[in-house]
């Protein structure tokens, strides 16, 4: 097997990548891989100036205006091999995390019959493949005996939505009339009225948004008073040792595996870097509070819930009355 | 003034087997009117939890009561996400608010009565606060004694014991038994448990039980043992018992 090569490469990558020095260029990693990465936008590290605000694209600094299209292209290229990527990043446990995420929110209204108009309106942002939406629907129906609540799956990327619709048909959720699809940028949800949503979920999506505060403001706007913002996202490990090991894995091995499995190293490289860039638990909680939400558990010093030592994390906020 | 380090901080830094002993040995760090303590619940929590408590007589200490409370307070079903501990939040709310309410009652105590009498009156007053929900109190005890909530439960019990002693005027350090918060906590806890079985009118049997136990106070030096037993009994027997009755814990 090629294990020695892999290890050597990953060591080298880790060595180069830690500590991160943005703007980062994949080109410097390896001559072999460089051939697949010839994207002209990497050649010019952009300069920060007032007219052209910049944001992060992984470790690169890019003009804000182009981040959206770049993120879109990443997800277009991983849409079909999407589960592989999640399995790699979560060490195979993202399905369990999603189960836990939905169960802990406990969506739905107990014994709510169809058609009496009293079900919940649930908005799953960056819902792409429908992973969260299907679970929410099942929880409502099977756990809460709720046959009325409706879920809007929203994503910026039509390819991801197409993948979601396909899975909805295959999974038999298509006919329920309780799922709908909305192509929208999470930072601009003008299709959704103010105070119209009971529950806003976003799983592994927020870190891709150009401006997280803008997305939070939109979440706050569309939620009803008393409504809940719930976010599941890769996060920072609590233990330095584990963090070092995990980084070595994610930076070193994942892009390489992405290359081998999906033939798309750069997209995977972006995903790994975007996780690294995402704010830590405490900072992210602060941003949620700043947007006006009440954060559960703050007084007990636990305003979030770490999963697997912090590889991923659940944050919630309740919009006050 | 004694050390101000919060009780739970001291508590959690010690290995689990030592904790229950430790709880009783920390110096008193808190009384409801000795310090200007921050309000224990936010206005939103207050609104939802007090409304939820009103549903406990019908729904017990359950998520249903919590949801009903949220609705009454003008919130949504999903707003109960504000309480990661679920139904346990209602239990804690009851314990904390009733402990804090004791201070108001204390002023009505006759100043000439002795400390034991004062303690008995205060403890009795606190027990009577359980009356409206007493037929659901075993559920609360079961929740209180699950591993996840045990630290909070013991802390609350210790704080109650402190509060009783403080309000009864036991401020001087003496070797009298009633300065032993552990012994008092054990007596209170056993009276509370007794009360859940008490069918007598106005809970007169519980009152007698409490009186007897307090009079025996001098003899009950083994307070720590008793607490150990109390915890063991709750954690084992009661939880199993309730589980067998289909209560989800
Ligand atoms: C890693 S996927 C998560 C999909 C799904 N929620 C899950 O947990 O499996 C991230 C998704 O975020 C979407 N996305 C990225 N930027 C977005 C934005 N600004 N607004 C809405 N969705 C966005 C992508 O199209 C992609 O489908």
TrEMBL record, chain A:
<comment type="function">
    <text>Methyltransferase required for the conversion of 2-polyprenyl-6-methoxy-1,4-benzoquinol (DDMQH2) to 2-polyprenyl-3-methyl-6-methoxy-1,4-benzoquinol (DMQH2).</text>
</comment>
<comment type="subunit">
    <text>Component of a multi-subunit COQ enzyme complex, composed of at least COQ3, COQ4, COQ5, COQ6, COQ7 and COQ9.</text>
</comment>
<keyword id="KW-0808">Transferase</keyword>
<protein>
    <recommendedName>
        <fullName>2-methoxy-6-polyprenyl-1,4-benzoquinol methylase, mitochondrial</fullName>
        <ecNumber>2.1.1.201</ecNumber>
    </recommendedName>
</protein>
<dbReference type="Pfam" id="PF01209">
    <property type="entry name" value="Ubie_methyltran"/>
</dbReference>
<comment type="similarity">
    <text>Belongs to the class I-like SAM-binding methyltransferase superfamily. MenG/UbiE family.</text>
</comment>
<keyword id="KW-0949">S-adenosyl-L-methionine</keyword>
<feature type="region of interest" description="Disordered">
    <location>
        <begin position="35"/>
        <end position="65"/>
    </location>
</feature>
<dbReference type="InterPro" id="IPR029063">
    <property type="entry name" value="SAM-dependent_MTases_sf"/>
</dbReference>
<keyword id="KW-0472">Membrane</keyword>
<dbReference type="GO" id="GO:0031314">
    <property type="term" value="C:extrinsic component of mitochondrial inner membrane"/>
</dbReference>
<feature type="binding site">
    <location>
        <position position="129"/>
    </location>
    <ligand>
        <name>S-adenosyl-L-methionine</name>
    </ligand>
</feature>
<keyword id="KW-0831">Ubiquinone biosynthesis</keyword>
<feature type="binding site">
    <location>
        <begin position="185"/>
        <end position="186"/>
    </location>
    <ligand>
        <name>S-adenosyl-L-methionine</name>
    </ligand>
</feature>
<keyword id="KW-0999">Mitochondrion inner membrane</keyword>
<keyword id="KW-0496">Mitochondrion</keyword>
<keyword id="KW-0489">Methyltransferase</keyword>
<feature type="binding site">
    <location>
        <position position="155"/>
    </location>
    <ligand>
        <name>S-adenosyl-L-methionine</name>
    </ligand>
</feature>
<feature type="compositionally biased region" description="Polar residues">
    <location>
        <begin position="45"/>
        <end position="65"/>
    </location>
</feature>
<feature type="compositionally biased region" description="Low complexity">
    <location>
        <begin position="35"/>
        <end position="44"/>
    </location>
</feature>
<dbReference type="InterPro" id="IPR023576">
    <property type="entry name" value="UbiE/COQ5_MeTrFase_CS"/>
</dbReference>
<dbReference type="GO" id="GO:0032259">
    <property type="term" value="P:methylation"/>
</dbReference>
From TrEMBL, chain B:
<comment type="similarity">
    <text>Belongs to the COQ9 family.</text>
</comment>
<dbReference type="GO" id="GO:0008289">
    <property type="term" value="F:lipid binding"/>
</dbReference>
<dbReference type="InterPro" id="IPR048674">
    <property type="entry name" value="COQ9_HTH"/>
</dbReference>
<dbReference type="InterPro" id="IPR012762">
    <property type="entry name" value="Ubiq_biosynth_COQ9"/>
</dbReference>
<dbReference type="Pfam" id="PF08511">
    <property type="entry name" value="COQ9"/>
</dbReference>
<dbReference type="InterPro" id="IPR013718">
    <property type="entry name" value="COQ9_C"/>
</dbReference>
<dbReference type="Pfam" id="PF21392">
    <property type="entry name" value="COQ9_N"/>
</dbReference>
<keyword id="KW-0831">Ubiquinone biosynthesis</keyword>
<protein>
    <recommendedName>
        <fullName>Ubiquinone biosynthesis protein</fullName>
    </recommendedName>
</protein>
<feature type="domain" description="Ubiquinone biosynthesis protein COQ9 HTH">
    <location>
        <begin position="47"/>
        <end position="70"/>
    </location>
</feature>
<comment type="pathway">
    <text>Cofactor biosynthesis; ubiquinone biosynthesis.</text>
</comment>
<comment type="function">
    <text>Membrane-associated protein that warps the membrane surface to access and bind aromatic isoprenes with high specificity, including ubiquinone (CoQ) isoprene intermediates and presents them directly to Coq7, therefore facilitating the Coq7-mediated hydroxylase step. Participates in the biosynthesis of coenzyme Q, also named ubiquinone, an essential lipid-soluble electron transporter for aerobic cellular respiration.</text>
</comment>
<dbReference type="GO" id="GO:0006744">
    <property type="term" value="P:ubiquinone biosynthetic process"/>
</dbReference>
<keyword id="KW-0446">Lipid-binding</keyword>
<dbReference type="GO" id="GO:0005743">
    <property type="term" value="C:mitochondrial inner membrane"/>
</dbReference>
<keyword id="KW-0830">Ubiquinone</keyword>
<keyword id="KW-0496">Mitochondrion</keyword>
<feature type="domain" description="COQ9 C-terminal">
    <location>
        <begin position="151"/>
        <end position="219"/>
    </location>
</feature>
<keyword id="KW-0809">Transit peptide</keyword>
